[in-house]
């Protein structure tokens, strides 16, 4: 199972989601994180969580490496760079699921549209693959923007997950502490942990539906 976290827009939550997904899966499966971003943020983070990782920023190397990694590990989680370089196209040619975190702002959703266009192009080439799931990230509860953003995502033509990750300080604190929300003990972290678990269960359900 190869899952790629993709979105052209920086700050959408790709790295945070990739690391939390990898940690959650690592409690039950053999997992590796592939950091395809030159900033190496996810690699620097997961090494403190005792999760295997590879740093691969060359498209050809990534293309060749992903199949053997998928044989060696139960789950391969790829943290893509915040742009639409060739390496993202390679990722989409190899992954089973493109997971797209989206922030609730007009500019972010517009940028996401470019990512979805690339995904749609790769699906045409691969006969409908990869699977795609969008979800709303860093959302503000009870806002009109939240409602409008969900509507825009649903109009994209791609599946939108029911789960929402709400904006909380504990999620922002986790990278600095080289931990996850599961390691933090405050009430806010417990709520975020529950939201992440619900999201990831839904992600696995996408594969069960196939």
Structural write-up:
This protein is α/β, with parallel strands linked by helices. It has 8 helices and 7 strands, in the order E-H-E-H-E-H-E-H-E-H-E-H-E-H-H. Helix 3 packs parallel to helix 4. The two termini are 13 Å apart. The mean pLDDT is 92.
Protein traits:
7 strands, globular, 8 helices, seven-stranded parallel β-sheet, 210 residues, alpha/beta
Set down the secondary structure blueprint:
Blueprint: E1 2-5, H1 14-26, E2 31-35, H2 41-46, E3 52-55, H3 59-72, E4 75-79, H4 86-94, E5 97-103, H5 106-126, E6 131-139, H6 144-154, E7 160-166, H7 169-176, H8 187-208
Parallel strand pairs: 1-4, 1-5, 2-3, 2-4, 5-6, 6-7
Helix pairs in contact: 3-4
Q: Residue share in helices?
A: 40-55%
Spatial gap, N to C terminus: 13 Å
| Structural class designation | alpha/beta
Physical arrangement of strands within the biggest beta sheet: 3-2-4-1-5-6-7
Task: Give me the number of helical elements.
Answer: 8
Rg for CA atoms:
16 Å
Mean pLDDT over the residues: 92
Percent of residues in β-strands: 15-25%
How many beta strands in the DSSP annotation? Answer: 7
Q: Helix and strand succession? A: EHEHEHEHEHEHEHH
Biggest beta sheet attributes = 7 strands, parallel
**Low-confidence sequence ranges:** none
Shape: globular
Sum this structure up briefly.
With 210 residues, the protein is α/β, with parallel strands linked by helices. It has helices spanning 14-26, 41-46, 59-72, 86-94, 106-126, 144-154, 169-176, 187-208, and strands spanning 2-5, 31-35, 52-55, 75-79, 97-103, 131-139, 160-166.
